[in-house]
Amino acid sequence: MIQKSLTEIAQMAGGLNDVSKFADVLVKGVSIDTRKIEQGNLFIPFKGERTDGHKFVEDVIRNGGASAALWQKDVPNPPEDLPVIVVENTTSALQELARSYRNSLDVKVVGITGSNGKTTTKDMTANLLAQKYKVQKTEGNFNNHLGLPITLLRLREDTEVAVLEMGMSSKGEIEFLTEMGRPDAVIITNIGESHLLDLGSREAIADAKLEIISGLKDNGLIIFHGDEPLLQERLKDYKGTGELKTFGVSHDNDVYPVNVEPMENGNKFTTNLGDQVFELPVLGNHNILNALAAMLAADFFSVPFDKMNDGFAGLKLTNMRMELSEGAHGEKIINDAYNASPTSMNAAIDLVANLSGYSRKILVLGDMLELGPLEEEYHYKVGSSLDAGKIDYVFTFGKLSESIAMGAKEVLGDDRVFAYQDKQELSNELKKHVNAETIVLVKASRGMALEEVVNALQE
């Protein structure tokens, strides 16, 4: 993590006041949350509509372990007897501090974006690179205009490769993040329907994701899903210095899977690049594609293919992403409740539909958010596309998911589909239908908090 004197921090963050009397104060890392401050942190307060972090500055420095704090210029009465750096805007100062620190490090960077799968791909890429390098990666969901700077400021000076997830909700955000991170290689996992509400079309989403290339260093690597026409169309006339590499199912890609064989907790597969068998302990054929993207990135940094199985073997995905667990009645639960879009939901349903070894398959599906004016139609299509011979019951939660239930009833019938607005009622009914030969998929957008259903099954 960043370790600098207060004088250096002030210079890097654009400090406006004289901090010379606190020149000996040492800053170790940063925090934006008073509940998570560690000894020596620089506390960064934000002035919000409901609360103002500046009111906690004095307490966190005197009693909370922080060594110093930023202070936004338009907030009155900065404490003059404490190590406080006055800046024009605390958010901009955090970002500028991160930019300056990143530029001071001798670190390689992989930037990852996409509508679905970017966190899983981040975890895979970091594990493969760790077979040769000292690696750090974005923690949790720290992938936005605040999270990415914090991730950069957490990098150790001896870190050799940083794997940075870059998220967005509107045009221009990824461009801002990638120019801060300055990646040596970038991955675009896919183009889905997430953010249709903000961007309006898949074409606009593709344009926004491709912003990640603007921060790419000269002679870097651009890895993208080659089966996506929107990406192919936009990159066919690419004139930059980066090398283009594609992954996907089509044999037109630079790397594609062959000889896929299911395992209990994932898949074995080979690729067109050789006969080596890779064992991926993550459920879902779509995750093989994420693995291929990670493999291309690792290969770019000279990680041998024969070392990559070691990286896959030690893989632990960020919570609630195809997480396999067991319920109180012996049922198996796939917890994929962190996020959802039509693309990722259909992929997860397809996985469950084609799993062998279970006599009963149940879907617990919640609302997919931020899909724009066609949201009800997207939900309905998820339900109406189900295979009645492969799915036994469907439980839905949320207002939008009533459309999933409507579509599912046309395929499965009324007696196999249950729609709820109360998670406890859903859980109580669900428990009546599970046994040791049941597999349950739980999936929805993050705002639906469907992990509560998983917890109820495990009680």
From TrEMBL:
SUPFAM superfamilies: MurD-like peptide ligases, catalytic domain, MurD-like peptide ligases, peptide-binding domain, MurE/MurF N-terminal domain
GO annotation (BP), single: cell division
Ranges for domain Mur ligase central: 112-298
GO MF, any single term: ATP binding
Domain called Mur ligase N-terminal catalytic: residue spans: 27-102
Gene3D superfamilies documented for this protein: Mur ligase, C-terminal domain, Mur-like, catalytic domain, MurE/MurF, N-terminal domain
Domain of life: Bacteria
EC number(s) from the headed UniProt entry: 6.3.2.10
Domain Mur ligase C-terminal: 320-446
Catalytic reaction annotation: D-alanyl-D-alanine + UDP-N-acetyl-alpha-D-muramoyl-L-alanyl-gamma-D-glutamyl-meso-2,6-diaminopimelate + ATP = UDP-N-acetyl-alpha-D-muramoyl-L-alanyl-gamma-D-glutamyl-meso-2,6-diaminopimeloyl-D-alanyl-D-alanine + ADP + phosphate + H(+)
PANTHER family listed in its UniProt record: UDP-N-ACETYLMURAMOYL-TRIPEPTIDE--D-ALANYL-D-ALANINE LIGASE
Family: Belongs to the MurCDEF family. MurF subfamily.
Name this polypeptide is given: UDP-N-acetylmuramoyl-tripeptide--D-alanyl-D-alanine ligase
Organism from which the protein derives: Mesobacillus subterraneus
